[in-house]
Amino acid sequence: MREAVFLLLVLVVPLPLGAADVAAEAARVLARHCVACHGAATQLSGLDLRTREAMQKGGARGPALAPGQPEASRVYRLAAALDQPAMPPGGKISAEDLAALHAWITAGAPPLPQPPGADHDSLRRKLEERPITEEERSYWAFQPPKRPRAPDVPAEFAGWAENPVDAFLLAKMLPHGLRPSPPAGRRLLIRRLYLDLLGLPPAPEDVEAFVADPAPDAWPKLVEQVLASPHYGERWGRHWLDLVRYSDSGGFEYDRDRPHAWRYRDYVVRAFNQDKPYPQFIREQIAGDEFAPDSPEALIATSFLRFGPDHNMKNEQTRMDELDDIVSTTTLAFLGMTVGCARCHNHKFDPIPQKDYYRMVAVFFSTVPADRPLAAPDVIARHQARNQEIDGLQKPLKAERDALEKPYREQLLAAKRARLAPHIQEALRTPPERRTEGQKLSALQVERTLRVKEEELVRAMAPADLARRKDIELALQMLDARRPEPLPTAMAVGEQGREAKPSYFLYRGRPGNKGSRMSPGVLSVAARVEPAFAEPPPDARSSWRRRAFADWVASPENPLTARVMVNRIWQHHFGAGIVRTPNNFGQNGARPSHPELLDWLATEFVRQGGSVKAMHRLLLNSQAYRMASDDTEANRRIDPENRWWWRMPRVRLEAEVVRDAMLAVAGTLDRSLGGPGVFPYIDPALWQSSSGRTWPGRPLSDPAAHRRSLYIFHKRTIPYPMLEVFDKPDAAGSCPERNRSTAPTQALVLMNSEAVRRQAAFFAQRLQQERPGDPAAQVERGFALALARPPSPPERSLAESFLRSSPYGLVDFCQALFNTNEFAYAP
Amino acid sequence: MRPEAAGSHFPKRVWSRRELWLRAGSGVGYLALASMLQRDALRAAPLGSPLASKAPHLPPRAKAVISIFCYGGVSHVDTFDPKPELARRQGEALTGKGEVIVAQGNPGALMASPWTFRKHGECGMEISELFPHVARHADKLALIRSMYAISNDHAPALFQMNTGFVLPGHPSMGSWITYGLGSENENLPAFVVFADWRGGPIGGAPNWGNGFMPAAYQGTLFRSEGDPIVDLRPGREVTPERQRRWLDLLARLNQEHLARNPEDADLASRIASYELAYRMQSSAPEAVDLAGEPAPVRAAYGLDQARTAYFGRQCLIARRLVERGVRFVQIYSGGGNFGESWDAHFELKENHELHAGETDQPIAALLEDLQQRGLLDSTLVIWHGEFGRLPISQQMDGRDHNPFGFSLWLAGGGVKGGVVVGGTDEFGYRAAEERTSVNDLHATILALLGLDHEKLTFFHNGRHMRLTDVSGKVVRKILA
């Protein structure tokens, strides 16, 4: 027994050790595991573990040390994982180190020497520096794209040699034993193109014209024609709005409307329609106010930085949340990197140091919301003058009202005071200088919060005074009605001058744990040369940090930007990206299935000056895009997921496309472009609340119900049900790719909702007008409108007998067409 | 294309296409189509549906959850956490507990509870006179008195309680659970939400949203009167026969289309979703139809009293839904702001008497009823708010928000009754012993359902996301 105890002691605490040795050992352990976060550089939880005295004082959770009693000392309990949170976070402490700590406390915690490397600067370096290795830089996505030569194409596939896109795809297909699918028919092709580029089905006349076009360049001509449609920007702008979490309201408690947000939505639509060069598109959104302070377009573009959710309370923490939203969204949308993961620690999978995160925070730190009127200075001045004039007229009226109310208010307050709890009344009776701390609080609370309610006031006032008060209120309202219409306004950003505000490294992401002051920077692993953040010119209104950052993002040297964007363009044409995680090109994301093709496209995009339409032309004119989407048995057996694109994908259309296509087919679609959001009817049961959130829904008969879905007001807490069930994203953060789920609730909406049934009725009415009294022709026309093709013989006979057998046949036939899989899927 | 789950728990396809087609062949295949819409209701979901029933990681104790959300913030020091010190030191300043943090400014002095507490049950759990009916079930309750949360602002706090995160954009607990376990009855939504008669809570739909998950996992808001689901049934002019005729036409048209790509699982499951929707049209109204409930049951839930009728009805429907295989039901007590919810910034007495009065008897009846039907063992009932309230006064007779310490209880579903976990300091300001985070609570709820909170993940924007983020520890003490 004695031997066993002795042995244990030898193993755990090598004896003999003097007090100084025990302390030196403990200091070494603390230096290794603890003082980085609880030492000279920072004291998380307010706890300092450098000295015995500081430990006894403890932190937010109380004292950390009870000399002589390791099991009662929090520093030991957490290190030994006897309590949560176990320390140090993420890493285990060795049995030897734990024993040393135990021994030191048992020995009464003798004073600790200062171990080497525990000074302020080296601790900071330990916390803040995270060097990037050459190996990490050599990861494919951080290497500049090189333009590969298009692969050779076997003679058998001569048609696939012209377009490098085809050559690259074929080069992956053939070795897998896959053969490209045959070309799709023209009716299907035009429907695919319209749904893809415009989000609307083609009119039967367009279909017939294309089918009958004998020109060898019938397809490229069609592509050009469709690309020129203003509805193209509505469709492709929507993809961009998903990425930038576009919303017309702020979310959280009050979910306040953002009345000027829609101008950004229209800006995006215009940018796509005008084929704005992508680098310019980037610069305007990140720093439009710095590049072109007098351009309304550039100011509107900076709304991009303001679409994050809006906290109800404002404090340092919520400000950091806002900045996190900006840094995360910017890096996800433009760079396809999950930089937001490095807010509290170095990125777990990618070489993204926490310091990079805070360098990027420093880029945006001085940026604040700034609504800017979009009008000439004299117009703005007149507007202000008019408002001031009305303020002036209202002032005496308000004074009169206040005077009228005053005696009643005083009387009511006195009565209320007399009814307060005895201890509060006593506090009020006590002379201020003799009040206890509690009494001071009570008295102050009464003074500041005892209020008269409106209904109490109305009940108390004499009839004549009440009548006069009503007159005054009316007069005030009438004056308000004479105020000028608000000026058109950009939901923009600004800074308070050339000087950037100081911002800091935050240990564990906590505002209370500041580290070094940060200079602005970029994603270091993707920048061979750190861009200069030069001093702004003397007359600048801001720090120009965003401008320098935008220049780096938009630079042709940036290895990520072009790749990420061409991947997105590809994704929307071909159903999935070449990198199938379009917002994550990092270690945890997918590897490109066709790296050479991706790089070729990226270099081509840069060569074309960042023209998105040029990329459309390239992809749409490929043979691949014109393949059929049906399975071929041999290919399916090899590659059932169609990873190598041996056919075009069949994917469920997005929420907006399903709805817009119904309106288009029914002939009710209002094709007007732009303007403030609209509010089609939503059943109040789905949104009723008295917390100030409202949905001023229009009746179904209102023309607003017929605008494109893009224009439906996006209220964060009141999603439009039909779009929501079909996976429209919630705008909480950047959404790179929509879910395409299938659920019975979707079927219920398309089967039963009044909105859809009305459209079916309009569709039927249209068929009746265009093909009066001829069921066979109505079936023919119905298929042409909804599916861009004539019915097959079995479909024709099914539909015709359906029409003949029921008095409501036509409406129900139309609704059946809206509900078909074919209608809801990209062909 | 869809984000894929991590590990082996929920691969993108748990069924092979071949299996699905075989299933589709028997369920909605061509020959079956003509009769598909008349067949007896099948309960289970078709394979391939996102709501197909899935096995949990571990043997489950509970199969369903009913969350009773006292929105606005129930005052723990007036309900389940007695603090005699408040009466003794009424009128004194709250000191010695670190900074006193208030949400709306003007902190007052310590304020005694207007209600008295008494010991209940064999366990002797102390509960205030606000909940006389629930108190009868003290021996069924596992009371956690040491909860703490992050935010003292309603919307973030609601989001945290519902989704684990204070920022919006994350799937709610109900979504996680239906994602993890699927549904036992696809003729009803798997995740049902009832709002208070005054309206929905702050934060709106994201409270039961699917976040970054597919829409199939979002909560469905049930109305308490008329058809429970918006768009459940067509306008009156569409008779069932008429609807069946056009759905039959649809089925045939879809079949023509499917024949070109018979292996396509997505197309087949969309066809199946119409079958489910059709059946939901009759099963959902049946589930909320209380005509068949005996008078004593209705009376027990308080349906015969104006004060309790609305909430009582929701509790009774919740039992019927759980009986029918619904996975997660959430009922909100309180809507709107201030007096309309538990948000008693002023007139605490009137406020809590109103809301406790509306809910106490129905909640007790629900526990009783579940037990009598043998459902309590498999149904977890959770009673909670988004935070508690401060021990000091606000506006003289109210209390401000307190996320630093508050109470909630769980019952049934594998929970040990009569247990009290942790406690707050002597004032009820901060959780002091056995501190329990919202992540811990969520981990515990998932554990009761047989789900390992560290394995239940969903890949999104580069991370395997969890309900419990990167922490969470199961509160073992309350497991039966």
List the helices and strands and how they pair.
The complex is a heterodimer of chains A (827) and B (480).
Chain A: H1 2-12, H2 19-33, H3 52-57, H4 74-79, H5 95-106, H6 120-128, H7 134-137, H8 164-173, H9 186-197, H10 204-212, H11 218-227, H12 231-243, H13 261-273, H14 278-291, H15 296-301, H16 316-335, H17 354-364, E1 368-373, H18 377-418, H19 422-429, H20 437-449, H21 454-460, H22 463-481, E2 489-494, E3 504-506, E4 514-517, H23 545-554, H24 561-574, H25 595-607, H26 612-620, H27 633-638, H28 655-666, H29 721-725, H30 744-752, H31 754-770, H32 775-787, H33 793-804, H34 809-819, H35 821-824
Antiparallel strand pairs in A: 1-2, 3-4
Helix pairs in contact in A: 2-5, 9-10, 9-11, 11-26, 12-13, 14-23, 16-17, 18-22, 19-20, 24-25, 24-26, 28-31, 31-32, 31-34, 32-33, 32-34
Chain B: H1 17-27, H2 30-36, E1 64-70, H3 84-88, E2 117-120, E3 125-128, H4 132-135, E4 141-148, H5 154-163, H6 173-181, E5 191-194, E6 220-222, H7 240-260, H8 265-288, H9 295-300, H10 306-323, E7 328-333, H11 348-372, E8 379-384, E9 388-389, E10 401-402, E11 406-412, E12 419-421, E13 423-424, E14 431-433, E15 436-437, H12 438-448, E16 458-460, E17 463-465
Parallel strand pairs in B: 1-7, 1-8, 4-12, 4-15, 5-6, 5-7
Antiparallel strand pairs in B: 2-3, 4-11, 8-11, 9-10, 13-14, 16-17
Helix pairs in contact in B: 1-8, 7-8, 10-11
